[in-house]
Amino acid sequence: MNNLNKKISKDSKYITLILDMQWKIICGNKKALSVLKYTKEELLSMTVFNLISSDEKRAVINQLKNFNSEEFHFNTFYCTKDSLKFPVEVSFIPMELNSNKIILNLIRDITLELQREEEIETLASIVEYSEDAILSKDLNDIITSWNKGAEKLYGYKKDEIIGTHISKLIPDETIGDVEIILDKTKKGIEIYHHETTRLTKSGKKILVSICISPIYNREKKIIGASAIARDISDKKSKEKQLKEKYEELSAIYEELASTEEELRSNYIELEKAKIEAENANIAKANFLANMSHEIRTPLNGIIGTIDLISLMEIRECTRPYLEILRNSSTHLLDITNNILDISKIESGKIELHMKVFDLKNMLDTFIREISYACSNKNIKFTYFIDPLIPSELIGDELKLKQILINLFNNSLKFTKKGHILFKVKKISQVNEKVILEFSIEDTGTGIKEKFKKQIFKRFVYQQVPQNEYYSTTGLGLLISKELVKIMNGDIWFESAENIGSTFSFTAEFLLYFNKAVDSKLMPEDTVPHTLNKNILIVEDNEINMQIACGMLKKLGYNFLSAYNGNQALKILETMSVDLILMDIQMPELNGLETTKIIRKNELHEKCHMPIIAMTAYAMPGDRELCIEGGMDDYISKPFDIYILKNILQRFL
């Protein structure tokens, strides 16, 4: 027994235990004590089954039921005293010692071996599914391996190509490559980015860039070669196009250089043309502003009249024609807005286009699109839509979808595996305003800590490598941030490198109430709250004055009328008013001049009258002009009764 103790104590490769025939531990080497973390006394009080992982114990017991004279070898899991589980290769060997039967239990930790096997499998998977064509061949140029990229590039399946000669892929005019490459392979020479022609299964010739490396066996003897090929047909085509463009531009440059003297002599004429162009731009801007004003003024009368008639008791057969009028006038308004977009783009200003839209329909379409995109990358996609979210809202549907698409594209681009989760929930609802929160969670590469403060800045990719997370997302995230800002929301993110990111944002919308229902409920509901409020309408257009008066009457407010600024000032001298709806362009005294006088008088009275600009001017900067002129807010014509109701409730 002493000799056996000495022998197993010296063996450092195995955890070695000696067991009696009842599986009780009667001896163990030093490695057993150090690895299993038991004292000698503790170890000798145990059976071997106390060391086996609980979820493996039943299987081991069943396997050892018939243990007698044969050796048993298998893999399982052992546990240390502090419950650390590790994989092992075990042997149970029957022996005799001093005429007594014993069991020698040899235990080898195979953690590193399993890790290496897993790494090898991972590398093999990377090679197999690489987009580059990767193949290997022996020293007789017989193809021995073939990945998915090779199938895609050359068109042959594995069972069609493995075992055939490499010449099957080489056209006649470059067949000399075979001997040259084989000779270099045998000499251990590596080949990098060799551009040549190859042949696909369909007979098409393609340009490829290939890299070839010798394959060595364990004895460092060359037994073959591996080749990586990439299709460069498009690249070469683009290079050719660029070369042609360069030559074309060079010719143009020479022509320009030859006429330089002529251009210098015409400098005065060019300066004159520049001034004329600047004047033309100013005239264009003035034309757009005036045209917008002239179109919006009658449109306000049309749309306002349609809204007021819709609230009346009318025949059902009349409603389809009202809807035609509403759609036609809305279409005309859209055309006007499209014309104004030219000026908005030039000025760099972004505005919301508030319209009624069905949020649930929009989300259904968005979810179908991103679900399809995720399935193409084998990424699990899930979503949750708060059932308490109202369906019909007033807001800018296109800008909302633009933000969602920007954030989703980032998640999809940087998520290679795992999942993407999309959630929408209601944060709050006060009166006619509802705030929603949208979030997109992914298991992508995440964002490094040092870059988190720069993620929403412009052009941050100029300072970082192209493979950083946000190297191509700075502009999209910046645009999303600006869009969220004008939707009275906020945007933020949470991210951990190599774990994933969650981008979230809030946005404010208005609730939409069906007008067919409101036509009966609105006057009775609002009158008790508004009878004691007096509103002064200052408007020189008779039709727009009638529309505004009709809307205020429906909403239950008291109102006074003035057709220019002078009349408005006289009314304010004798009447108590709670709010003013002020047109801008009026005879005698316009809206801005009138507001300036009112604000000057308020300095002595120490009070503040809410003044809302009610104008057909809708060019970039018009709203800011009104606010800077002392007004509190701005409504652009045409507007409907619901927009008017919302702004009056906000100030009154």
From TrEMBL:
May play the central regulatory role in sporulation. It may be an element of the effector pathway responsible for the activation of sporulation genes in response to nutritional stress. Spo0A may act in concert with spo0H (a sigma factor) to control the expression of some genes that are critical to the sporulation process. Residues 534-652 form the Response regulatory domain. The keyword Transferase applies. Residues 119-173 form the PAS domain. It holds the Pfam family HisKA. It comes from Clostridium kluyveri (strain ATCC 8527 / DSM 555 / NBRC 12016 / NCIMB 10680 / K1). It catalyses: ATP + protein L-histidine = ADP + protein N-phospho-L-histidine. Its EC number is 2.7.13.3. The modification 4-aspartylphosphate is found at residue 583. One of its GO terms (molecular function) is phosphorelay sensor kinase activity. The keyword Coiled coil applies. It is an enzyme of class 2 (transferase). Residues 192-244 form the PAC domain. Keywords: Coiled coil, Kinase, Phosphoprotein, Transferase, Two-component regulatory system. Residues 290-511 form the Histidine kinase domain. Residues 232-290 form a coiled coil. CDD domains: HATPase_EvgS-ArcB-TorS-like, HisKA, PAS, REC_hyHK_CKI1_RcsC-like. This is Circadian input-output histidine kinase CikA. In the N-terminal section; belongs to the phytochrome family.
